[in-house]
Amino acid sequence: MVKRIFDFSLALIGIIILMPIFLIIGALIKLDSPGSIFFRQIRIGQFGREFRIYKFRTMVNNAEALGKQITVADDRRITRVGKLLRKSKLDELPQLFNVLKGEMSLVGPRPEVPK
Fold first, then answer.
1. What whole-number distance in Å separates Cα of residue 31 and Cα of residue 105?
2. How much is the CA Rg of the chain, to the nearest whole Å?
3. Does residue 112 contact residue 20 with C-beta atoms inside 8 Å?
């Protein structure tokens, strides 16, 4: 219970403080390439529960249909803004919403992609 309160509080504070950065990143993604600002993917959380993880989109729209599931450093599907976001790990910031919803924790194992 204490960990959940800790996660919720820090995620909420983080979202409030980082909202201007979220807006700037969203605008940059929209200017760089057509499509959604966010990338959503099903992941497996604690006790095998599926949930939808949120990230900023770093690849071209519909990238899954254009190539392999795994990306490499020079993948042509990665956008210009996407390269910067991946390098700085800023693409992970929307996961604070997953933490806020209780689907993830700030500290713990990385949720896996279902096989």
1. 32
2. 15
3. no
